């Protein structure tokens, strides 16, 4: 798992049938110091409540679709939760 910041949404006119009804988000991965790390990824919003500027935690690859009814959803990442507070020591 890793954390990221939602920086946008994806609007699709056509997509894989297994993604029907799922919200897709553009998420910028963050490092330990909450600085951007790497390239943005497209993530499935498995909880249905994440939005722009939210700090979220994500799962990669196959684990990203575990909360969904269909475990064979093609995705690189999935939002598992929204981080309300964080503390960096």
From TrEMBL:
Membrane-traversing stretches: none
Protein keywords: Bacterial microcompartment, Carboxysome
CDD domains: EutN_CcmL
Annotated signal sequence range: none
Keyword Cytoplasm tagged: no
Cellular compartment(s): Carboxysome
Key word Amino-acid biosynthesis present: no
Pfam families for the chain: EutN_CcmL
Principal localisation: other
Protein name, UniProt field: Ethanolamine utilization protein EutN
Lineage: Bacteria, Bacillati, Bacillota, Bacilli, Bacillales
């Amino acid at each position: 798992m890793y954390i990221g910041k939602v920086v946008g949404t994806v609007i699709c006119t056509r997509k894989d049938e297994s993604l029907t009804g799922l919200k897709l988000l553009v998420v910028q991965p963050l490092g330990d110091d909450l600085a951007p790390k790497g390239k943005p990824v497209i993530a499935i919003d498995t909880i249905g409540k994440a939005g722009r500027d939210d700090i979220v935690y994500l799962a990669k690859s196959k684990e990203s679709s575990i909360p969904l009814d269909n475990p064979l959803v093609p995705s690189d990442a999935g939002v598992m939760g929204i981080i309300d507070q964080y503390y960096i020591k």
